[in-house]
Protein backbone atom coordinates (compact mmCIF):
# COMPACT_ATOMS: atom_id res chain seq x y z
CA UNK A 1 0.00 0.00 0.00
CA UNK A 2 1.08 3.58 -0.58
CA UNK A 3 1.75 4.45 3.07
CA UNK A 4 4.20 1.55 3.42
CA UNK A 5 5.84 1.72 0.00
CA UNK A 6 5.95 5.34 -1.14
CA UNK A 7 9.63 5.75 -0.25
CA UNK A 8 10.50 2.82 -2.54
CA UNK A 9 8.54 4.49 -5.34
CA UNK A 10 10.29 7.82 -4.74
CA UNK A 11 13.67 6.04 -4.78
CA UNK A 12 12.91 4.49 -8.20
CA UNK A 13 11.64 7.83 -9.51
CA UNK A 14 14.84 9.53 -8.36
CA UNK A 15 16.96 6.82 -10.02
CA UNK A 16 15.29 7.80 -13.30
CA UNK A 17 15.73 11.53 -12.58
CA UNK A 18 19.44 10.91 -12.04
CA UNK A 19 19.71 9.80 -15.69
CA UNK A 20 18.80 13.27 -16.98
CA UNK A 21 21.75 14.42 -19.14
CA UNK A 22 20.88 18.07 -18.47
CA UNK A 23 23.00 19.34 -15.59
CA UNK A 24 22.52 22.23 -13.20
CA UNK A 25 24.93 23.50 -10.56
CA UNK A 26 23.69 23.24 -6.97
CA UNK A 27 26.02 24.33 -4.17
CA UNK A 28 28.97 23.99 -6.56
CA UNK A 29 28.08 20.43 -7.60
CA UNK A 30 26.74 19.06 -10.90
CA UNK A 31 23.23 17.67 -10.41
CA UNK A 32 20.95 16.17 -13.07
CA UNK A 33 18.36 18.88 -13.64
CA UNK A 34 15.24 16.73 -13.18
CA UNK A 35 16.59 15.33 -9.92
CA UNK A 36 17.13 18.90 -8.72
CA UNK A 37 13.64 19.87 -9.92
CA UNK A 38 12.03 16.89 -8.12
CA UNK A 39 13.89 17.75 -4.90
CA UNK A 40 12.68 21.34 -5.18
CA UNK A 41 9.13 20.07 -5.66
CA UNK A 42 9.39 18.01 -2.47
CA UNK A 43 10.92 20.96 -0.58
CA UNK A 44 8.04 23.22 -1.53
CA UNK A 45 5.52 20.47 -0.77
CA UNK A 46 6.90 20.38 2.79
CA UNK A 47 6.20 24.12 3.05
CA UNK A 48 2.79 24.02 1.35
CA UNK A 49 1.42 20.83 2.92
CA UNK A 50 3.67 19.35 5.62
CA UNK A 51 1.17 16.54 6.28
CA UNK A 52 0.83 15.55 2.60
CA UNK A 53 -0.37 12.05 1.81
CA UNK A 54 2.09 9.46 0.45
CA UNK A 55 0.18 9.55 -2.84
CA UNK A 56 0.72 13.30 -3.19
CA UNK A 57 4.40 12.95 -2.22
CA UNK A 58 4.93 10.46 -5.05
CA UNK A 59 2.97 12.57 -7.57
CA UNK A 60 4.97 15.66 -6.64
CA UNK A 61 8.25 13.81 -7.09
CA UNK A 62 7.18 12.37 -10.48
CA UNK A 63 5.59 15.51 -11.91
CA UNK A 64 8.28 15.84 -14.61
CA UNK A 65 9.14 12.13 -14.79
CA UNK A 66 11.59 11.47 -17.67
CA UNK A 67 10.52 14.76 -19.24
CA UNK A 68 13.89 15.33 -20.89
CA UNK A 69 13.27 12.36 -23.21
CA UNK A 70 10.58 14.27 -25.14
CA UNK A 71 12.16 17.48 -26.37
CA UNK A 72 10.02 20.59 -26.80
CA UNK A 73 11.18 20.92 -30.41
CA UNK A 74 9.79 17.47 -31.24
CA UNK A 75 6.47 19.33 -31.54
CA UNK A 76 5.78 22.42 -33.68
CA UNK A 77 7.15 25.60 -32.10
CA UNK A 78 3.70 27.15 -31.90
CA UNK A 79 1.24 27.66 -29.05
CA UNK A 80 -0.76 24.64 -30.26
CA UNK A 81 2.46 22.61 -30.49
CA UNK A 82 3.39 23.62 -26.95
CA UNK A 83 -0.02 22.65 -25.59
CA UNK A 84 0.09 19.29 -27.39
CA UNK A 85 3.59 18.65 -26.03
CA UNK A 86 2.47 19.47 -22.48
CA UNK A 87 -0.64 17.29 -22.82
CA UNK A 88 1.41 14.34 -24.09
CA UNK A 89 3.97 14.77 -21.30
CA UNK A 90 1.34 14.82 -18.54
CA UNK A 91 -0.21 11.58 -19.80
CA UNK A 92 3.16 9.89 -20.30
CA UNK A 93 4.51 10.99 -16.92
CA UNK A 94 1.32 9.84 -15.22
CA UNK A 95 1.41 6.43 -16.92
CA UNK A 96 5.09 5.84 -16.10
CA UNK A 97 4.68 6.90 -12.47
CA UNK A 98 1.57 4.75 -12.09
CA UNK A 99 3.52 1.72 -13.34
CA UNK A 100 6.27 2.37 -10.76
CA UNK A 101 3.62 2.60 -8.03
CA UNK A 102 2.08 -0.72 -9.05
CA UNK A 103 5.56 -2.27 -9.00
CA UNK A 104 5.96 -0.97 -5.44
CA UNK A 105 2.73 -2.67 -4.29
CA UNK A 106 0.42 0.33 -4.40
CA UNK A 107 -3.18 -0.68 -5.00
CA UNK A 108 -4.58 0.01 -8.46
CA UNK A 109 -6.70 2.78 -6.94
CA UNK A 110 -3.64 4.40 -5.33
CA UNK A 111 -1.61 4.21 -8.55
CA UNK A 112 -4.55 5.72 -10.44
CA UNK A 113 -4.72 8.54 -7.89
CA UNK A 114 -1.03 9.33 -8.41
CA UNK A 115 -1.65 9.44 -12.18
CA UNK A 116 -4.68 11.74 -11.79
CA UNK A 117 -2.64 14.17 -9.71
CA UNK A 118 0.19 14.25 -12.26
CA UNK A 119 -2.37 14.92 -15.01
CA UNK A 120 -3.71 17.72 -12.75
CA UNK A 121 -7.28 16.48 -12.96
CA UNK A 122 -9.95 18.46 -11.09
CA UNK A 123 -7.72 21.47 -10.50
CA UNK A 124 -9.50 23.96 -8.20
CA UNK A 125 -11.82 21.17 -6.97
CA UNK A 126 -9.37 18.57 -5.65
CA UNK A 127 -7.24 19.94 -2.80
CA UNK A 128 -4.27 17.68 -3.58
CA UNK A 129 -4.30 18.66 -7.26
CA UNK A 130 -4.33 22.31 -6.19
CA UNK A 131 -1.40 21.69 -3.87
CA UNK A 132 0.56 20.09 -6.73
CA UNK A 133 -0.20 23.10 -8.94
CA UNK A 134 0.85 25.51 -6.18
CA UNK A 135 4.11 23.63 -5.71
CA UNK A 136 4.87 23.59 -9.46
CA UNK A 137 4.23 27.34 -9.64
CA UNK A 138 6.42 27.98 -6.58
CA UNK A 139 9.29 26.00 -8.09
CA UNK A 140 8.91 27.95 -11.34
CA UNK A 141 9.04 31.27 -9.49
CA UNK A 142 11.95 30.24 -7.28
CA UNK A 143 14.07 28.14 -9.60
CA UNK A 144 13.22 29.04 -13.21
CA UNK A 145 11.71 32.52 -13.36
CA UNK A 146 14.88 34.62 -13.46
CA UNK A 147 16.28 32.59 -16.38
CA UNK A 148 12.88 32.70 -18.10
CA UNK A 149 12.58 36.48 -17.81
CA UNK A 150 15.90 36.97 -19.64
CA UNK A 151 14.57 35.32 -22.80
CA UNK A 152 11.22 37.11 -23.14
CA UNK A 153 9.85 40.60 -23.48
CA UNK A 154 8.19 42.28 -20.50
CA UNK A 155 4.63 41.98 -21.85
CA UNK A 156 4.95 38.20 -22.27
CA UNK A 157 6.56 37.81 -18.84
CA UNK A 158 3.77 39.76 -17.15
CA UNK A 159 1.18 37.67 -18.99
CA UNK A 160 2.87 34.43 -17.83
CA UNK A 161 3.05 35.73 -14.26
CA UNK A 162 -0.66 36.57 -14.27
CA UNK A 163 -1.51 33.10 -15.56
CA UNK A 164 0.77 31.51 -12.98
CA UNK A 165 -0.77 33.57 -10.17
CA UNK A 166 -4.28 32.65 -11.34
CA UNK A 167 -3.53 28.95 -11.00
CA UNK A 168 -2.48 29.28 -7.36
CA UNK A 169 -4.40 29.17 -4.09
CA UNK A 170 -4.22 31.87 -1.42
CA UNK A 171 -1.68 29.78 0.51
CA UNK A 172 0.38 29.42 -2.66
CA UNK A 173 0.31 33.21 -3.06
CA UNK A 174 1.56 33.67 0.52
CA UNK A 175 4.50 31.33 -0.08
CA UNK A 176 5.29 32.94 -3.45
CA UNK A 177 5.60 36.35 -1.85
CA UNK A 178 8.22 34.94 0.56
CA UNK A 179 10.58 33.75 -2.21
CA UNK A 180 13.80 35.79 -2.30
CA UNK A 181 14.05 37.45 -5.73
CA UNK A 182 16.03 40.07 -7.58
CA UNK A 183 14.65 43.61 -7.67
CA UNK A 184 13.85 43.15 -11.38
CA UNK A 185 11.80 40.01 -10.68
CA UNK A 186 9.97 41.71 -7.80
CA UNK A 187 9.16 44.65 -10.07
CA UNK A 188 7.76 42.36 -12.77
CA UNK A 189 5.62 40.50 -10.23
CA UNK A 190 4.39 43.83 -8.88
CA UNK A 191 3.35 44.90 -12.38
CA UNK A 192 1.64 41.56 -13.01
CA UNK A 193 -0.34 41.74 -9.77
CA UNK A 194 -1.25 45.40 -10.25
CA UNK A 195 -2.94 44.75 -13.61
TrEMBL record:
One Pfam family cited in the UniProt record for this chain:
DUF4202
Q: Which organism is it from?
A: Cadophora malorum
| Name of the protein in its database record | Glutamyl-tRNA synthetase
What superkingdom does the record give? Eukaryota
Q: Name the InterPro entries for this protein.
A: DUF4202
